[in-house]
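Task: sequence design from structure.
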């Protein structure tokens, strides 16, 4: 936590510093939120462009999900799915 005792009022200098630091954090977060929104719009536009080129959006999302997994996780997941499909008689 903070080294500033809470039972004593802040000096004017400390209060000014805290105010500027708080303002800096808020402004940085606001800029990042704007960037996040712009990136989200860019991703949406890219999906729409891919759809316009004839690609299946659900398949693209699945590929992105798979690519985020490490190889061992992916192999384990695929083995479990195959086992369940065999148990359901859906795979020969």
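Answer:
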């Amino acid at each position: 936590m903070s080294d500033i005792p809470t039972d004593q009022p802040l000096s004017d200098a400390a209060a000014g510093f805290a105010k500027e630091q708080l303002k800096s954090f808020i402004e940085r977060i606001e800029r990042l939120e704007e960037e996040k929104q712009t990136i989200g719009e860019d991703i949406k536009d890219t999906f729409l462009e891919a759809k316009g080129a004839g690609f299946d959006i659900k398949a693209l999302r699945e590929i992105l999900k798979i690519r985020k997994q490490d190889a061992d996780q992916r192999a384990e997941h695929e083995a479990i799915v195959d086992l369940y499909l065999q148990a359901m008689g859906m795979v020969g």
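The mean pLDDT is 90.
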